[in-house]
Design a protein that fits this description.
By secondary structure, this protein is an alpha+beta fold. It has 2 domains: about 190 residues, FAD/NAD(P)-binding domain; about 90 residues, D-Amino Acid Oxidase, subunit A, domain 2 (D-Amino Acid Oxidase, Chain A, domain 2). An 8-stranded mixed sheet has the order 6-5-14-15-16-13-17-20. A 6-stranded mixed sheet has the order 8-2-1-12-19-18. Strands 3-7-4 form a 3-stranded antiparallel sheet. β10 and β11 form a beta hairpin. The longest helix has 23 residues. The radius of gyration is 21 Å and the shape is globular.
């Protein structure tokens, strides 16, 4: 088999790249080791930056998102029993976020690619990459118990943190930056209407809590917990009791309970991870294959989409003129945005979570910082412009 761009991973990054390349007349094949049903129902992020919304819309994949997604113009910081709304729309000149599940984006992209006769090979197993430093890199895989080889001009590694692409780069090429946090998020998906029209980020003496949503009928909730906690030790009663305690306000704000869906219950350790460069030879890493951010800043999927936008433009130049200038600068271009997002995610995480070694001094510093963000228009604008996403041409 042969194609121009071999894409490993049918998440938002791989599927969006395939779609953008199709619009440029560039052929690609997407390989995914999971089934279509699995990737379409895998519960992940749900906050789309303005850039991501615009890209989906402009590329013709945003119709259902526009119809079903929930546009938010603000976000609430809650601490000391009081809520403080950050008006992102006003502070950023009309930019906003849209709450729309990552798995819904994946469904839309898969349908769009298949409708255009795009090739997505699900349940492609034992994937490995070869000859990365040549002009004809290869992907070996098994499909229907048969060994197959895909030759291509370029390989896009969109296969996530645990994928095969990043580990296939020779030792000594990549520099790894990593930070592990001493806490995790316990997340649930509850079958109940959201108790707030916008997201609520809460700093509490018992730990962080987040009230989010996936639809008008589904509420997404998170609480800070120990990374070694066993999900079986968190009964529904314990989860709701902790959420009521952490999200409570002096005004008596009420949290609506509902049945917790098992597919939405999980514990996720917090970490920051990044490699430089994001390319080697004809292999280009995108999304979680190259970087992981803490979810506090809602940047993971948005960074992945931004990566492949840059890669698609570079490949369009390559196939149109033979020039490699944009491909050569792919990593450098992406890393400007990635490091900014890493900093924002670290800042949000550090400001809103309780740390094991936290003393009264640090606790008061966090409260002072939260108060500053909530009361200063300049500080609030910093949070707002990063949360809705800096424009794609910000560093141009």
């Amino acid at each position: 088999m042969h194609t121009q761009v071999g894409i490993i991973g049918a998440g938002p990054a791989g599927l969006m790249l395939s779609h953008l390349l199709h619009l440029e007349g560039i052929k690609s094949i997407v390989l995914e080791d999971r089934s279509r049903g699995y990737v379409e129902n895998r519960i992940r992020a749900g906050v789309l930056e303005q850039n991501t919304v615009d890209m989906l819309t402009d590329s013709g994949v945003g119709e259902r998102m526009k119809r079903e997604g929930m546009v938010h113009h603000g976000v609430e910081l809650r601490f000391g029993g009081q809520g403080h709304r950050i008006d992102m729309y006003e502070l950023t000149g009309g930019r906003a976020i849209t709450v729309y599940g990552q798995h819904e984006v994946v469904k839309d992209l898969i349908r769009t690619r298949l409708d255009a006769d795009g090739q997505i090979l699900f349940e492609a197993e034992a994937v490995s990459v070869h000859d990365l430093d040549t002009s004809t890199p290869k992907i070996h895989f098994q499909k229907d118990d048969e060994d197959q080889e895909l030759t291509c001009d370029v390989i896009a590694g969109c296969d996530g943190f645990h994928g095969v692409c990043r580990p296939s780069i020779p030792e000594g090429v990549l520099t790894v930056y990593e930070r592990k946090y001493p806490f995790a998020w316990l997340g649930i998906l509850a079958e109940t209407p959201p108790s707030s029209e916008e997201l609520i980020y809460t700093y509490h003496e018992r730990g962080f809590a987040l009230h989010s949503m996936r639809s008008p009928e589904l509420t997404r909730l998170y609480i800070q917990c120990d990374p070694d906690d066993d999900i079986q030790d968190w009964s529904d009663e314990r989860i709701w009791e902790e959420l009521h305690t952490r999200l409570a306000t002096e005004e008596g704000w009420a949290l609506t309970e509902g049945p917790i869906l098992e597919e939405g219950r999980s514990i996720t350790p917090m970490r920051s991870f990044l490699v430089e460069p994001m390319q080697y030879g004809r292999l280009f890493l995108a999304g979680d294959a190259a970087h992981v951010v803490t979810p506090t800043g809602a940047k993971g999927m948005n960074l992945a989409v931004a990566d492949v936008r840059v890669l698609a433009q570079a490949l369009a130049e390559f196939y149109e003129s033979g020039r490699t200038s944009l491909l050569d600068r792919y990593s450098e271009t992406c890393l400007h945005r990635v490091w900014r997002a890493q900093h924002f995610s670290w800042w949000m995480t550090s400001m809103l979570h309780r740390f094991d070694d936290e003393d009264v001094f640090r606790h008061r510093l966090q409260l002072a910082e939260l108060d500053y963000v909530a009361s200063s228009q300049t500080a609030a604008a910093t949070l707002a412009e990063n949360y809705v996403g800096l424009p794609m041409d910000y560093w141009d």
